[in-house]
Amino acid sequence: MDSPILLLEHTDEATKQMLENVRKRKQKFDDAKKWHYFAIYSTLSFAFLFFSYFYLTVAKIYSYSFFAMFSAAVNDSVNVLLFFVTLCLFGAMNLLKQQKDKKEKEYQELRCEIVDRSKDLWKKEDQWGKRHIIFEMMKKNYDINLYHEKK
Question: Could you give the number of structural domains in the chain?
């Protein structure tokens, strides 16, 4: 368990475990988002390289005939390699987007559950009065908003 969550007062162990789980899911979501953006930028970079190379080596020279362009494009191994790398990165980008969306959904569901059950998690009067300290700590340390359900 992360030390700021472990050192919390006015919360029981089950609540600390829920806070730790939402922290872990937020971390997984952030990692998935980072890898998705990396895949987007890689795909765009390789697509730019592919189209630039294609234009300079094939389209500019063989623009008089579609069949000549197609034949020259298929015969050039660098052109084919750049095309397939771009295609693979596009597929990876879509796969990483699905994973990111799934992890975001899991994170948001758990976060909303904590928001909904806050009256049950902090039952005692002194715990209820001090819960804003926990919410502020989660917002400041982990960028997790537990005040309300909206993103």
Answer: 1
Threshold 0.85, pTM exceeds = yes
Classify residue 147: in a domain, yes or no. no
- State the DSSP code for 10: S
Longest dimension (CA), the chain: 82
Range 7-24 burial, b when 16+ CB lie within 10 A, else e: ebeebeeebbebbeebbe
Q: Is residue 43 part of a domain?
A: yes
Q: What is the pLDDT of residues 77-116, one digit of tens each?
A: 999 999 999 999 999 999 999 999 999 999 999 999 999 9
Task: Give a yes or no: residue 90 inside a domain.
Answer: yes
